[in-house]
Design a protein that fits this description.
The protein is α+β, with helices and mostly antiparallel strands and 396 residues long. It has helices spanning 86-96, 143-154, 161-176, 192-209, 213-238, 249-262, 268-278, 282-285, 295-299, 323-337, 344-356, 372-394; strands at residues 42-56, 62-70, 73-80, 98-107, 115-124, 286-287, 313-314. The strands form two sheets. A five-stranded mixed barrel has the order 1-2-3-5-4. The longest helix has 26 residues, at 213-238.
C-alpha cells in the first residue's frame, strides 16, 4: 500500500490466498503521457480510440473530437475537417480503433495546462489487441496489494455488513477489479476503482478506530493543505498550471462543519459498506475492452445487447443515469438475493451515503449529506481522489 496520510496508522492486511478474487493485470504503464509533452511538440504514436464523434461549431464548421488511451494514461484529441466529409475522416479511427497518429501537442487556453492532440494524419493498425493500450496502474504498485487490503477490511465488518459486502464482490468482482474510477482526473486506469475503494476504506477505518475521529479527519485535511502549499511553491519552477487540491478545501471544511454540528462518532460498519457501494455504479457508467457484456442484464430487468468495447469511455446508456443510482440498485439486489432485511433507518442511511457522496448538487449529488457517515464518506472520497491527483502531479 502507498502511504495515504501520515496521521493514519499504516495497517497491512495478510495476503489473500484463494481463487475467488483473482487479479488479471498486465501493469505496463508505458506509452504516451500527455503531461510530459510540451505545447507545440509534434509526436507520432500508436493509440487506442476510446471515443470519437463529430462536433459542429457555431459557424457550422465540423471537427472530430476524440479520447485516446495509452498504457500511460488518457488524453483528448481533435482533427479539423479540411477536405471531404466528417464521416469519411472518422472512418479510419473506427476501422480497428487502434491507430498511428501524427499530431501536434496544443494547450488551450494558453498556460492552462490543458493539453490535447491535434491530429494531422492517421493510419489504422490491424495487428494489435486493444487491452494492451488501456491505461494501467503505476508500475511500482500492485492490484493484489489493494485487493488484500480491501478484503482484509471487509473481513473486519460485523454481520450482516460483511456478508453483504462479500456477496457484492463475488457477483461483480471481474468488473470491479478492472474498472477505472474516472476518465481523466484520478485513478483513471485499469484497476483504479479497486485501488480508490481500498484506499478510502483504509482512511475510513483509520478515522473510525481513532480516539477522536473528527480530529483525525482534520489532521488529514491539514496535510492536504500542506501538499497544496508545496505545490504552489513549486508552480513556477515546475511550470505547474493545474493544481491538485483546487476547489477542495471549502468542501472539506463544509464536511467537517457538518460532522461537528451532528457531534456523533462514525459507524465503521455503515461507513465502510457505504464506501464499497459509493462508486460501484461505475461498472455501468463506464466501459472498456474487457468489460463484461452482461453486467446490465445481471443487475436490471433488461435484455443483453452487443457492445463495441474499446478504450475507457462513458457507456452511452450508463451515463444517462450516472453511477449513484446503480450503487443503490446493487445494494437492493444483494439484500434480496441474500434474504437480508436491514432496519429501515440503516437501509436509508446506506442509500443516502451513495446518493450524497459528491457533496453538492452542482457536483452531481442526488442529495446533499445529512448524516455523520455521509459527511465522512464525502470528505474521504475527496481526500483520496485529490491525494491521488497530487501524487501523479508530483510523479510519485
Amino acid at each position: 500500500m502507498i502511504q495515504l496520510f501520515k496521521a493514519l496508522p499504516e495497517v497491512t492486511m495478510p495476503s489473500y490466498e484463494n481463487d475467488t478474487f483473482s487479479i488479471h493485470q498486465s501493469n505496463q504503464p508505458i506509452g504516451l503521457s500527455i503531461e510530459t509533452l510540451v505545447s507545440g511538440e509534434r509526436i507520432e504514436e500508436v493509440l487506442l480510440v476510446a471515443s470519437g464523434e463529430i462536433r459542429t461549431g457555431q459557424t457550422g464548421r465540423e471537427w472530430l473530437q476524440f479520447t485516446f488511451n495509452s498504457p500511460a494514461g488518457s488524453c483528448k484529441g481533435k482533427q479539423w475537417i479540411n477536405q471531404g466529409t466528417a464521416e469519411e475522416a472518422l472512418r479510419p479511427y473506427l476501422e480497428t480503433r487502434i491507430v498511428r497518429v501524427e499530431a501536434k501537442v496544443e494547450e488551450y487556453p494558453p498556460q492552462s495546462g490543458n493539453k490535447s492532440l491535434t491530429v494531422q494524419r492517421v493510419t489504422p493498425i490491424h495487428d494489435a489487441s486493444p487491452t494492451q493500450f488501456l491505461p494501467q496502474l503505476p508500475a511500482d504498485e500492485s492490484l493484489e496489494t489493494y485487493r488484500d487490503q480491501l478484503l482484509g477490511l471487509v473481513g473486519q465488518l460485523d454481520s450482516p455488513y460483511q456478508e453483504i459486502a462479500l456477496s457484492i464482490l463475488r457477483q461483480y468482482w471481474a468488473d470491479f477489479s478492472t474498472r477505472p474510477a474516472a476518465l481523466f482526473h484520478h485513478h483513471a486506469y485499469i484497476g483504479g476503482l479497486l485501488k480508490h475503494t481500498a484506499c478510502m476504506m483504509t482512511i475510513g477505518r483509520g478515522i473510525c478506530d481513532s480516539e477522536q475521529p473528527y480530529l483525525m479527519l482534520l489532521k488529514c485535511i491539514q496535510e492536504a493543505e500542506a501538499d497544496h502549499k508545496n505545490e504552489l511553491f513549486q508552480a513556477a519552477e515546475r511550470e505547474i498550471r493545474q493544481f491538485s487540491w483546487d476547489d477542495s478545501f471549502d468542501a472539506l471544511y463544509q464536511a467537517a462543519k457538518g460532522i461537528a454540528l451532528l457531534d456523533q462518532r462514525p459507524n465503521p460498519n455503515e461507513l465502510l459498506l457505504g464506501i464499497l457501494l459509493h462508486d460501484i455504479g461505475k461498472l455501468w457508467e463506464y466501459t472498456h475492452a474487457g468489460a463484461s457484456t452482461d453486467r446490465f442484464s445481471r443487475l436490471l430487468h433488461v435484455t443483453e445487447e452487443e457492445e463495441e468495447l474499446a478504450g475507457i469511455a462513458l457507456d452511452p446508456d450508463g451515463v444517462l443515469m450516472g453511477h449513484m443510482p446503480y450503487g443503490c440498485f446493487v445494494l437492493e439486489q444483494t439484500l434480496r438475493e441474500e434474504d437480508i432485511r436491514l432496519p429501515r433507518a440503516v437501509y436509508h442511511r446506506l442509500m443516502h451515503m451513495v446518493l450524497s457522496h459528491h457533496g453538492k448538487r452542482e457536483w452531481g449529488s442526488s442529495v446533499t449529506p445529512q448524516t455523520t457517515d455521509a459527511w465522512y464518506l464525502h470528505a474521504i472520497d475527496l481526500l483520496d481522489a485529490r491525494k491521488e491527483k497530487w501524487r501523479q502531479q508530483q510523479g510519485r
